[in-house]
Design brief:
46% of the residues lie in helices and 15% in strands. By secondary structure, it is of the alpha/beta class. The protein folds into four domains: 123 residues, Rossmann fold; 175 residues, P-loop containing nucleotide triphosphate hydrolases (Rossmann fold), CATH 3.40.50.300; 75 residues, Helicase, Ruva Protein, domain 3 (Orthogonal Bundle); 47 residues, Homeodomain-like (Arc Repressor Mutant, subunit A). The strands form six sheets. The protein has a five-stranded parallel sheet, sandwiched between helices. A five-stranded parallel sheet has the order 9-12-15-8-16. Helix 6 packs across helix 7. It starts with a strand and ends in an 11-residue tail after the last helix. 35% of the residues are buried.
């Protein structure tokens, strides 16, 4: 046991007896014989719990409880009341007491109550510190992070926001590319205009042209009326082309011309229409490799890649995992109406240790699940998804003397490649350079092992 306890009772002998009993059990206990003296100490010294008798001369236990709760809301007050005085105990709880015990009581029962109260205060302090860290973290609109990697990103976004240059946001799936795009729009000179987003991978290639550029009446079957495309809808604002690497090769020259000329020609129309929108594109693909493989036009790449912002994966952001987890937790707890305030230390360790291949999106889903399932005021390890609970970092075992622990060369290579990818934050170009072979070879090996690789467009 541990914790600093202040005992308050006008019976000096009882104070001395309780203090001695608690000290034997590991608490740091001191006492006061009046409510006035106790409140003066609370205001100048740090305690974890106040234990106060309700029936005292002068300031009563209820009055002391009310004053402590008003002045130090983080400090739990446990009240002691005579057996059978339930109405008084209820009054104490209404005054803000953490708990109450009735006389006569066993020291062991008091110790159990105090241990819970100390843990409760520690939790509240932990939550307060996490909230302060979330509030004080480097924020760029809805982007949260205090790690060096995110500090560098938010500083770059701050410089880019006030310009009108095209921006290419890169990063793994789930790293928050649309969040970054919306943040750029909200901080930019076009903030009063619309933010129009389109996922280029979600629209069939034969419909994407019409979606982007619009179409004239009668341009194709079912085109009974003319339709304004997304470029025109974004006029005066920002057009966000998510998954730009998925745009079919045949459509890419038309997109390039639209970006160069700042005009679009709706499908089935003979005239062009001007637009005025900032272009922000995003991809989780390696566009340079796609250019080498003739799946993406080099001239289009340079047109959208005026300023590049690379978002780091969550595993490369250190303690940002806990900042984001606390941010998500508070939102889901409020939405679900559950009094969940934080994480147990073992759960926090699991969150930090996990590699988060799905990045912030996976973390958000995991926290939503945990808040929905937990029966306590803190997320415990058992509330986390199985993949997070049972995660083990990859390692390459070469020093063992036990033949049962040794693995094949293929498995050694697989583990080492995974380790290099973890070390480079998933950057396959950097990983291939370290490993000593080109990216195509790396992709083939990852595909053979069934590891996460962006899907290829076989038609490109």
């Amino acid at each position: 046991m541990s914790g600093r306890i202040l005992i308050v009772d006008d019976d000096k002998s009882l104070c001395e007896m309780l203090a001695a009993g608690l000290q034997r059990r590991g608490f740091d206990a001191e006492w006061a014989t009046s409510g006035e003296e106790a409140f003066a100490r609370v205001r100048t010294r740090e305690f974890d719990v106040v234990v106060a008798d309700l029936n005292m001369r002068g300031m009563t236990g209820i009055e002391l409880c009310e004053r402590v709760v008003a002045d130090r809301p983080d400090l739990p007050v446990v009240v002691i009341t005579a057996f059978g005085s339930l109405d008084t105990a209820i009054a104490a709880i209404r005054a803000g007491a953490y708990d109450f015990i009735t006389k006569p009581f066993e020291t062991a029962a008091l110790v159990l109550t105090l241990a819970r109260a100390v843990a409760h205060r520690a939790l509240r302090q932990e939550v307060r510190m996490l909230r302060e860290r979330v509030a004080n973290a480097n924020r760029f609109e809805e982007m949260i992070g205090a790690s060096p990697a995110m500090t560098e990103v938010t500083e770059l976004l701050g410089r880019v926001a006030e310009t009108d240059a095209a921006v290419l946001i890169t990063g793994e799936s789930g790293t928050g590319k649309e969040v970054a795009a919306r943040a750029l729009h909200a901080r930019g000179p076009r903030r009063a205009g619309p933010f129009v987003a389109v996922n280029c991978a979600a629209i069939p290639g034969n419909l994407l042209e019409s979606e982007l550029f619009g179409h004239a009446r009668g341009a194709f079957t079912d085109a009974k009326t003319a339709r304004v495309g997304l470029f025109q809808q974004a006029d005066g604002g920002t057009l966000f082309l998510d998954e730009v690497g998925e745009i079919p090769l045949l459509l890419q020259p038309k997109l390039l011309r639209a970006l160069q000329e700042r005009t679009v020609r709706p499908v089935g129309s003979d005239s062009e229409v001007a637009f005025d929108a900032r272009i922000i594109a995003a991809t989780n693909r390696d566009l340079e490799l796609a250019i080498e493989e003739k799946r993406f036009r080099e001239d289009l790449y340079y047109r959208i890649n005026v300023i590049r912002v690379e978002l780091p994966p969550l595993r490369a952001r250190g303690a940002d995992v806990l900042l984001l987890a606390q941010h998500f937790l508070e939102g889901f707890a409020k939405r679900m109406g559950k009094p969940v305030a934080g994480f147990t230390p073992p759960a926090a360790e699991k969150l930090v240790a996990y590699a988060w291949p799905g990045n912030a999106r996976e973390l958000q889903n995991s926290i939503e699940r945990a808040v929905a399932l937990t029966q306590y005021d803190r997320i415990a390890v058992e509330d986390l998804p199985e993949t997070v609970r049972n995660y083990r970092r990859s390692h390459v075992l070469i020093a063992s003397e036990d033949p049962e622990e040794l693995v094949t060369m293929d498995e050694v290579e697989r583990r080492y490649i995974v380790r290099v990818l973890e070390a480079t934050g998933g950057n396959k170009k950097a990983a291939a350079k370290i490993l000593g072979f080109d990216r195509r070879t790396l992709y083939r090996k990852l595909e053979r092992w069934g590891l996460a690789v962006e899907p290829r467009d076989d038609n490109g």
